[in-house]
Design brief:
With 508 residues, the chain is of the alpha+beta class. The protein has 3 domains: 37-125 and 208-222 and 246-293; 129-203, no CATH class; 310-473, no CATH class. It is 47% helix and 22% strand. It has helices spanning 2-27, 139-152, 157-168, 175-180, 187-200, 282-293, 307-316, 319-333, 342-353, 355-377, 383-407, 421-438, 440-461, 464-472, 476-487, 498-507; strands spanning 37-63, 70-78, 83-87, 93-116, 205-212, 217-220, 222-229, 234-237, 250-255, 261-264, 267-281. Helix 9 packs across helix 10 (355-377) and helix 10 packs across helix 11 (383-407). The longest helix is centred in the N-terminal third of the chain and has 26 residues, at 2-27. The two termini are 37 Å apart.
């Protein structure tokens, strides 16, 4: 029963910690590397129009909504004197600016920052089969004749669309193509023609209006991409080249061929785009993302604490990992240490003294302390006075080492004061007792095991990725707790015991 209870508890801890970790990493985008940077594109749409006389004016701007391949980090609107409403109920997302009285040149701004996310698929509905367009003659006959020839030379929707775009972009087009594209001179007009021809073949297609990305662009173009539904998913084509796939340097701004800007009460309306590229820390982007999603998790995380407190917890969250390493080394390998968690505390001190200097000072203080402890044994002191005496000696030794190192110009020695004095005192006492009861060999073995374990823990704590992950995702401590509980149920042989039992078997 106890064994089953332990496994169930460990499984619950594992699921809880893993679920919260995946949510923060995948949904909120918290990075696994603190130094990670993300390429961020900041786009600005400048809406301008003119109002001849004082009166009311309204401006509708189509704005991105769940763009596939990208995530929106933040967005803001600049509209002095205008009321702003974001309409998300209609087909496509729109920003609506309105004012009661205005005259002259008007400028409105919409700015957003996005970053690439290949896993982002968007939420586009499955379309219905379109009706065959009712064109005037001879355009209807040309459309039907062209689609009929293309269908004979294709096998599915993908090959049909590719063949159709090749014909439309042929520099020496056939008669039907010349007739149909006579009035389709711009990329947008050419894309609308492709949508019409695909509708003539009962193939659903739409236009995706995209903003061209690149290095800093004061004026970015809006280019169309042809989206065709193959019955299962949307596939994308460049209408000017016929190439399959969505170009990586385009941002899907709006779905459909409707104009991006619609102004009531003004004239000369237009929208201009500018793009700026930058690198930002992934952590900041993730926090902004969490705020935009309304998640309260960052507010209840270690990131919300004051910076001084954060630095303290950056060390504290590493202690359970060090304790787990001690459990594994003792229960599975059989390494003996002075005290259970003495190596963890010494490893924390190594973070300040550095490894080589810490080992030197550690060894020096322990050796001298053992000698002093052996001398005090002859005085027949009680336990508490003896411990107080050893503690005083340890402090004196640490003081002398710091002064001597400073005189020699070795700054590392100044950090010896960060060693846990009481821990060193208890270690000296424990090694002395072991020396008296079991002999020098056992005492030295425990001391060496303590140093080896402390060095291993220090090396693990020194991995920046591990420190960052445990600080940003403290729920992973539940996984460490689960592993510790499972390790506590192990009752088999330790690795160091195999040699001993092998000798016993040979004697039999």
């Amino acid at each position: 029963m106890n064994r089953r209870h332990t496994f169930v508890l460990a499984a619950c801890l594992f699921l809880a910690g893993t679920s919260l970790f995946l949510y923060k990493a995948r949904t909120l985008g918290l990075p696994l590397d603190g130094a990670q940077e993300t390429e961020v594109w900041t786009m600005e749409a400048h809406v301008s129009f003119h109002r001849d006389s004082v009166g009311a004016a309204k401006a509708h701007l189509r704005i991105p909504e769940n763009p596939f391949g990208y995530r929106i980090a933040n967005e803001n609107f600049v509209s002095r004197g205008y009321g702003l409403t974001v309409d998300e109920r209609t087909t496509g997302r729109q920003a609506l600016w309105a004012v009661r009285k205005v005259a002259g040149e008007q400028s409105l701004y919409y700015r957003l920052s996005v970053y690439a996310d290949p896993t982002r698929k968007g939420s586009l509905p499955k379309p219905t089969f379109p009706k065959v367009p009712e064109l005037e003659e001879p355009y209807y006959s040309a459309m039907m004749d062209l689609t009929s020839h293309v269908r004979e030379q294709s096998a599915d929707i993908l090959t049909f669309t590719s063949a159709l775009l090749r014909r439309l972009n042929d520099p020496t087009p056939e008669e039907n193509v010349s007739l149909l594209r006579a009035e389709a001179r711009t990329p947008m007009q050419r894309s609308k023609l492709a949508v019409t021809l695909l509708a003539g073949a009962r193939i659903p297609a739409e236009i995706v209006q995209c903003v061209q990305l690149g290095e800093d662009r004061r004026t970015a173009e809006v280019l169309p991409i042809l989206a065709v539904h193959n019955g299962d998913d949307w596939i994308y084509f460049d209408p000017q080249t016929g190439e399959l796939g969505f170009p990586p340097n385009l941002f899907p701004w709006a779905w459909g061929s409707k104009p991006l800007i619609d102004v009531s009460g003004g004239r000369g309306d237009m929208v201009e785009f500018s793009v700026v590229r930058s690198l930002q820390p992934t952590m900041e982007i993730a926090q902004e993302r969490a705020a935009s999603l309304g998640s309260k998790i960052p507010e209840f995380s270690l990131l919300a604490l004051p910076l001084r407190t954060q630095s303290v917890y950056g060390v504290i969250v590493m202690i359970p990992l060090g304790a787990l390493l001690v459990v594994l080394l003792m229960n599975f390998i059989g390494i003996r240490t002075v005290g259970t968690f003495m190596p963890v505390l010494i490893a924390i001190a190594f973070r300040e003294t550095q490894l080589l200097g810490g080992l030197m000072f550690f060894t020096l203080i322990i050796m001298v302390g053992l000698g002093i402890r052996a001398y005090l044994e002859h005085l027949r002191l009680l336990l508490v006075p003896r411990l107080a005496s050893v503690l005083t000696v340890v402090v004196i030794l640490m003081t002398l080492v710091s002064i001597a190192s400073h005189r020699m110009g070795v700054d590392t020695g100044l950090s010896v004061a960060l060693f846990p004095m009481v821990i060193l005192t208890m270690m000296i006492e424990r090694m002395s007792v072991t020396w008296e009861e079991l002999g020098a060999r056992d005492a030295i073995t425990e001391g060496m095991g303590t140093m080896m374990t402390a060095v291993l823990i220090y090396l693990v704590m020194g991995v920046a990725v591990i420190r960052h992950v445990l600080f940003v995702f403290p729920e992973l401590l539940l996984l460490i707790l689960a592993a510790t509980l499972l390790a506590g149920r192990y009752t088999g042989f330790r690795l160091t015991e195999y040699r001993r039992f092998k000798a016993m078997a040979a004697e039999q």
